Amino acid sequence: MSDIAAPHGDDWVHVGPEPLPLAEASAWATLPRCGAVVTFTGTVRDHSEGRPGVVSLEYETYPEHVESVLADVVAETRRDWPDLGRVAALHRTGLLALEDAAVVVVVSAPHRGEAFEAARHCIDTLKHRAPIWKRETWAGGSDWSTCEHPDDRARPGTAPAPPTVGGPT
Predict the structure, then answer these.
(1) Domain 11-144 top-level CATH class
(2) I need a surface site. Which of 19, 81, 127, 130 has the fewest CB within 10 A?
């Protein structure tokens, strides 16, 4: 059982250092009126582009800002797919080892098509918008990850990030 408690409502957003409640999130999203529950879990893998032998990731955020962004992403997802049952968007912070869950998105809906589409929209939008920084440690060293969406905001506790560093992961 996780230290992250499921909400009483139909939306669940969270960012923090605790292990993510994968089984609990899927069980929470299951509703009698929904015939589909789609769960996406992003885990720490042993490589990234140009960096073989990754051994860990470290995520940094401004938690209060990220939770607000996650809530906005969930609200937008609901606007685009109004028949959804429950939606969860949870992201972990701190040091994570290989195979640890870094992010989970769970969507329930009456039918599989809308559940898959909404879950994909939710994770893709979260990765694009949420200011979460990822430091990779691999066989050749340690550095902030290159990102698909550059961001000029500084990582928590640092000076502004150089143009090739930082940004949402």
Answers:
(1) alpha beta
(2) 19
